[in-house]
Amino acid sequence: MTTDSSPVRVAVIGTSVISGSFAAAVAAADGIRIEAVYSRDAERAADAAARFGAEWSSDSLDEVLGSPEVDAVYIASPNSVHAEQVAAAIAAGKHVLVEKPAVLHAREWRELVVQARAAGVVLLEAMRTEYDPGTALVRSLLPRLGTVRMASLRYAKRSSRYDQVLAGERVNMFDPALGGGALADLGVYCLHAMVSLFGMPDRLTAAVVPVASGVEGAGTVTAAYPGLVVDLSYSKISTSQLGSEIQGEDSTLVIDLIAAPRVVTLVAADGTTERHEVPGDPHPLAGEIDRFVDLIATGGDAGADQLLTEQTLELVERARSAAA
């Protein structure tokens, strides 16, 4: 295992686009490096290892999890296999950073949290929104809004692979057997941000636009709190040109991108505006990596992080049930 003076040696499970983004963020981070890459396809694993700067690759998950040279794993495989891979990594004594959605059901997450605590390893969902400096900026400005009454959180971006779906091809992110769908891929950012900022709602309604594969291609969620209503919209079959906003009785916050805010504008009731920008150009995955490394290095408690993941997963299930 890692020591205070040595970096966390992480194995990347999966070779998708997000794995490449993770590798780029790791390259710029302190206290962590990519040791290995796993894929069921040996050639694909080797190619990704070369691109990610990893020491070695394997098409055997058992080999990766059994290696004393691996301290932790980053899981970016299809959603449907997250739970079994997380459980295997925990059993092998590895720390786990797992892409969102961490698992398909809240009950699975609760069980894995118990297993991680018993094993003495860190289990964290790679929910970039929670650890992004833009989210911290939004949170810091909320007190200036007065009583918050309405919020509209949006993430709608047409997938470059939607044309394949229209052509009748099987695409992982739109495959119900692999836990795909726009709610799990993009809507979850809105749900997580809502829970993080406002807590769990009292009531929830939802509607979806399904695609041919059977999953939701787009949808809406309306959440009710005492004195506050939050509407969420998400899509992977169309693109929104609107940002998100949080409306208070005194001022309104306009947010450019809810998953990684970079420009947040405060508009007062009299129309005056203040533009707030996140300094520099932080990588959108940098915050989650820093949090993961810090928890490992300090032996910190991830309980609050894990609860937010559990609550978000519960809302995903409630939204799907409400839309059924």
What does this structure look like?
Helix content is 37%, strand content 26%. The chain is built from eleven helices and 14 strands. It has an eight-stranded mixed β-sheet with strand order 8-9-10-7-11-12-13-14, covered by helices on one side. It has a six-stranded parallel β-sheet with strand order 3-2-1-4-5-6, with helices on both faces. The protein is globular.
Roughly how much helix do the residues carry, as a percent range? 25-40%
Return the string of H and E elements.
EHEHEHEHEHEHHEHHEEEEEEEHH
The tally of beta strands, per DSSP, is: 14
State the secondary-structure class: alpha/beta
How many angstroms separate the termini? 46 Å
Structure summarized in a few sentences:
The protein has 324 residues and is α/β, with parallel strands linked by helices. It contains eleven helices and 14 strands.
Keywords:
37% helix, 14 strands, single chain, 8-stranded mixed sheet, alpha/beta, 324 residues, globular
Please outline the helices and strands.
Elements: E1 8-13, H1 17-27, E2 32-38, H2 42-52, E3 56-58, H3 61-66, E4 72-75, H4 82-91, E5 95-99, H5 106-119, E6 123-126, H6 128-131, H7 133-141, E7 148-156, H8 162-166, H9 182-198, E8 203-210, E9 216-225, E10 228-235, E11 244-248, E12 251-255, E13 263-268, E14 273-277, H10 286-298, H11 303-323
Parallel strand pairs: 1-2, 1-4, 2-3, 4-5, 5-6, 7-10
Antiparallel strand pairs: 7-11, 8-9, 9-10, 11-12, 12-13, 13-14
